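Batch job 17 of 40 flagged for manual review because the log was empty.
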Amino acid sequence: MTELLLDARKVRVEFGGLVAVNDVDFNIPTGSIVALIGPNGAGKTTFFNVLTGLYTPTRGGVHFDGVSIVGVAPHKIAASGVARTFQNIRLFGAMTAAENVMVAMHPHLKSSVVSTILRTPRQRHEEKEARATATELLKFVGIGGTEEEFAKNLPYGDQRRLEVARALALRPKLLLLDEPTAGMNPQESATFTTFVHRVRDEKGVTVLLIEHDMKVVMGVSERITVLEYGAKIAEGTPAEIRSDQRVIEAYLGKSATEEVA
């Protein structure tokens, strides 16, 4: 059997009388690239927020690396190996690219507040190593040379890449990408598809992404799960999902598919 890095069972999220996620079973094998897709309002980002601890499910269980993370604080889930990017970029605009990446290394740094204030030799050495790691990650995501640029001054596509570099600085086992190609042109989206495989193959990171660009989804994913109105309606390989009638109806509407037929 393939080892599961994440296993969610019967996850349900309710907001008052609204069911945003409806008893969803979902798992991610270690070392895989998985996509979560569906029409707007299908519950994708809500499900992401459950996996990262921003929301606590109304019921159901979520295990990451064999340990339950239901009710665990987001920063503790992040420290355990779950990193994410956001649909709306959330960078520290007044900090440099290198500083944005170094912020994410905090859970792995050993220097105390006192040693940081006193600038002890150990603290200076650790900071030097952190900056070198930040430089390497910026180069890895394709924006080497931007270390001293303020994040707010970077082009939109480079800000997207910076957010990925910051997520990788957490040393994650699982990377969640929320609409990573939003705002990118077709060439940038195609390049990103190759980049996701590099993240998995070179960094050993398992990847889960939400994405609306079906060309990206079909090109990068090994398995795709489809949500509609909070419920899972299909799951399978890209070839299986592409020909699934329920998925076609979810995106085009039943009347439209009947007209095509």
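Reviewer: the log was empty due to a logging misconfiguration, but the result itself is present. The chain has two domains: 1-81+172-261, 92-167. Unflagging and moving on to job 18.
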